[in-house]
Amino acid sequence: MNTFSLILKEIGFRKLNFILGLLAVTTAVVLLVAFDTTGRAYRRETRRIMRNMGQNLRIIPRQTSMDKFWSAGFSEHTMPEQYVHRFASLRGYSYTHLTATLQKSVSWRDKTVILTGILPEVLPADKRHQKPMTFFVEPGTVYLGSEVAGMFNIKAGDMIDLFGKMFKVIKCLSPSGSSDDIRIYGDLHDIQNILNLKGRINEIKALECLCLIEDKNDPRSMLEIAQQQLAEILPEGKVLLLKGIAEIRQKQRAAMEGYLAFVMPMIIIVCGAWIAVLAHNNVNQRRSEIGIMRSLGYGSGRIALLILGKAVLTGLLGAAAGFFIGTAVALDIGPEIFKVTAKAIKFEYSLLPVMLIAAPVFAAVAGFIPAMIAVAQDPASTLKEE
Amino acid sequence: MIILENITKTYSTRRGSVHALDGISLRIEKGDFVVIRGPSGSGKTTLLMIIAGMLRPTRGRAVVGQSDLYELGLKGRAQFRAGNIGFIFQMFHLVPYLNITENIALAGPAAGKKPDKTRLAALLNDFGLAERAFHKPSQLSAGEKQRTAIARALHNQPKIILADEPTGNLDPENAHSVLAHLRDFHHQGGTVIVVTHGSEADRYANRIINMNNGRVENLG
Q1: A254, exposed or middle or buried, with CB in 10 Å at 0-12, 13-18, 19+?
Q2: Nearest Cβ partner for B110 among A291, A296, A386
């Protein structure tokens, strides 16, 4: 009889032990999958909320008149486009999203619109895999704000003439209740060409931008440090730091990460201990059986395989069951919590192979000590027992 | 041939050392039917476990056939047991979730043997278990359980049978049946060592050894 058959027969005989073990693994996987699936929704929602709140570091041309800037929402002056790449290569700053824009109010078809050229996001080397936060407009195409599209009855797929050049409308955006509704978004270089401002931008925006202060006792604020440092490499730039957003974001992230850092290990420790206790009880119940197998000449490896094999099988079944139950829980509860991104909560199939590998390994690790106890068990003392 | 030289087994407990075996030297010839008799706690089961290669003595040497058992590693001793020794216990120690046939066949893989249906059928017939072939141990009488244990011990055609109180849980009729099976194995050239505190096996033995307090009182 092979090891797998022995494991199956033993499971059939001690059903309760197996069911409780399966419950432990399933519970752990359900919680992990549900947390992860809703956590992804949380991150998507946070990203969206943050996008609506704006960027926390803005670099604008130095000669910008701030009264005009705040009333218009952008600078009437420009600075070199290469500043964005200089900033990206600067050590001592961390950020998650970085982009550059060129914006200008123009009259188009007798209406005022804001032409907005967007540079594709510059992502830090360690975050190249992450999804860009701002949309990317292909050269030769435009996105239209809802007012612009509505005023001229333009639909996605239409071709429009923009100061003598034809562009395809890819998307008409939904109303935002802001100046975005009168924008025409295009590729930065297309907009530069239209405005005859080749190689110029009028704003650099960065999200989650933090200045890494080497000296903790430095009395200067982050804004002062950034202003002084950036003045050297971006002489035509002026730094604005939306401190409140940066701090709120940082606190929010720290709180969520702190919560998950507490909850996840707790789940793993509790369920791991649960499996270990069950495996230990199982080994105790099987003392006679293990003893007789040793007396028949079964080696330590085969005995350990019986215990660990059962743990791995429990892990596999628990992972599969836990993935589907956890996802169902997330799909059921998630939309109640994350209303904005409710539709984005979906089956995270990438978690299934991870769980199918992690859960058996986790169960095997939890069952390792009981397996070693089984192997080290003195068969002589077991078999002498009456 | 089994040679034990100055075997000592000492257990350390909180109350101090307990000498289970105290300098035992013994020689058992191939084909002997030996009864080792003694009261509970005399060390006879410990001696049996040492002969089986399952319990390392504190001192001394145990040679079975050509093998100096405790010079072998754990794996070596396990292989030695699988190929040479059959075990019978008072408590039967059948695996509860396997049926009778599977319990008997359980010995095979340890010795690297593939399932042999003919051999299994012969054992089931010889031990009057054919009608119980697919019953679980919980459905058997004590006598049937012990006959199953003997069939399992004989499955790999061992050279030596070690029996620890094999009739301790049986009525006289079943006790006789079990001992008769051991006698048959002995008559076929096998070596049998039975440890017991009773005298029912005496008439089957060609040698009786008495033990007390971890020492051999009478070499038989």
Answers
A1: exposed
A2: A296
Backbone angles phi and psi of A76, in degrees to 5: -85, -5
Full-model pTM: 0.63
Residue B22, number of CB atoms within 10 A of its CB: 15
Query: Are A148 and A106 contacting, i.e. CB atoms less than 8 angstroms apart?
Result: no
Backbone angles phi, psi at B64, to 5 degrees: -125, 120
Average pLDDT for chain B:
90
CB atoms A380 and B49 under 8 Å: yes
Contact B106 A2 (CB under 8 A): no
Structure confidence by residue, pLDDT tens digits, B19-38: 889 999 999 999 999 999 99
Asked if A297 is an interface residue toward chain B (Cβ–Cβ < 8 A), one would say: yes
Report the first-to-last Cα separation within chain A, whole angstroms: 28
pLDDT tens, A136-189? 889 999 999 999 999 999 999 999 999 999 999 999 998 888 889 999 999 999
- Chain B residues within 8 A of A297 when measuring between CB atoms: 78-83, 85, 107, 110-111
A293 touches chain B (CB under 8 A): yes
Question: Are A288 and B90 a contacting pair at CB < 8 A?
Answer: no
- Collect all residues with Cβ–Cβ distance below 8 Å to A349 and sequence separation of at least 6: none
Q: What is residue B83's three-state secondary structure?
A: helix
pLDDT at A218: 62
Picking from A294, A300, A383, the nearest residue to B89 by CB comes out as A383
Here the ipTM equals 0.84
Give the closest residue to B208 by CA, choosing from B4, B17, B5, B28.
B28
